[in-house]
Amino acid sequence: MAALQTCLNIDELRLRARRFLPRGLFEYIDRGTEDETALRRLRDSFEQAELTPRVLVDCSERHAGVTLFGRDRPLPFVIAPTAAAGLVRYDGEVLLARAARAAGIPFCVSTQSITSIEAIAEAGAELWFQLYVWRDRSLTHALLDRVAACGVDTLILTVDTAVSPKREYNRHNGFNVPVTPSLRGALDVARHPAWLGGVLLRLLAEGGWPGYAHYPPQFRTRITDAASHDPIRLCDGVSWDDVAELRRRWQGRLILKGVLAPEDALRAGGTGVEAIVVSNHGGRNLDSAPAPLAVLPRIVDAVGGRMTVLADSGVRRGSDAAKLLAAGAAAVLLGRAPLFGLAAGGQAGAEHALAILWDELERTMALLGCRTVADLRSISFPGIDAQSS
Ligand SMILES: Cc1cc2nc3c(=O)[nH]c(=O)nc-3n(C[C@H](O)[C@H](O)[C@H](O)COP(=O)(O)O)c2cc1C
């Protein structure tokens, strides 16, 4: 824990995560897609957006809390869905859920998590569930019944992954699906004994190579197996009809994640979904995709308050989150930041990542003369206006 406290920002947690994790797993988390243009664009978007300080505003009573979907939350963050977080640390998804609970924010469980929603629910956190639609829609609907039975009331449908993106480093590292055992991979793992002993050997001792816990038992493969079962392949035919069907079936809140075009945001508004996440998937999918910060104001304008607009991708500083909030996001999802924390120090590390961003956000707010997130939304924001014009 003492060592964790020496990490003063998310980049320092990232370096610690890089030391702990085998390279294949670290790069799977850290990197983007193809030429990693979208990833660079994310950093550029935040760095180029200036915030002008406002002076002599009494900010002694400031707080970054928000009311999101009718519930007060101490900070405007949600832990984003990330596949295979259970490989980062033993029981990683449960640890993330506990960190979210400690911070008073929701944790969104991925369809592709290593631990089942039923087991994660025992952590007592507010859970959301992220859905990838499988080719066999009836299996997808059965999964939703499982999710609803766990008391989950918020479903995020990820709509930006019509096909698997081309992430060449995963192929080089043997970290594609299936994970391809190789001498290079074995040496990589051997060079990271803390991960080998603390995660992989524990998982192997427990039941062999882990798999994706939400796949139906008859199709549940290990991560080292090809996903050869057609019914549970990622469906490349997901359309607005699926959104309408999900809207009919899912009693809770429905959110579309991965919207970047104002036209799509408008169309989403007509389907009865409660919210969208403006996201480029952390720069991991379409490599030419814009940064959310660049399109957010237009989307917020287009939606005109008829739907909640959330955002994510590339947040490494509290000031990045401040910019997304100032540009109109109701809350910000965090993907890699809590994962780096998780790798660096388990649940305490994930909590530390949230605490760092929370502290940085509140400092940014004070330096801007903002006492609340609502104040943040009213600041003039030339960087944003320039990007979105
Ligand atoms: C390792 C990893 C796995 C991810 N898995 C999923 C997933 O299963 N479903 C999904 O909708 N998004 C997934 N994402 C995207 C995140 O939900 C989120 O949009 C993105 O990480 C935000 O960018 P950030 O990591 O820079 O915060 C994943 C991201 C990472 C880094």
UniProtKB/TrEMBL annotation:
Pfam families: FMN_dh. One of its GO terms (molecular function) is L-lactate dehydrogenase (NAD+) activity. The active site is at H281 (proton acceptor). Its cofactor is FMN. GO terms for cellular component: plasma membrane. PROSITE patterns: FMN_HYDROXY_ACID_DH_2. One of its GO terms (biological process) is aerobic respiration. InterPro entries: Aldolase_TIM, Alpha-hydoxy_acid_DH_FMN, FMN-dep_DH, FMN_HAD. PANTHER family: 2-HYDROXYACID OXIDASE 1, S -2-HYDROXY-ACID OXIDASE-RELATED. Belongs to the FMN-dependent alpha-hydroxy acid dehydrogenase family. This is Alpha-hydroxy-acid oxidizing protein. It comes from Azospirillum lipoferum.
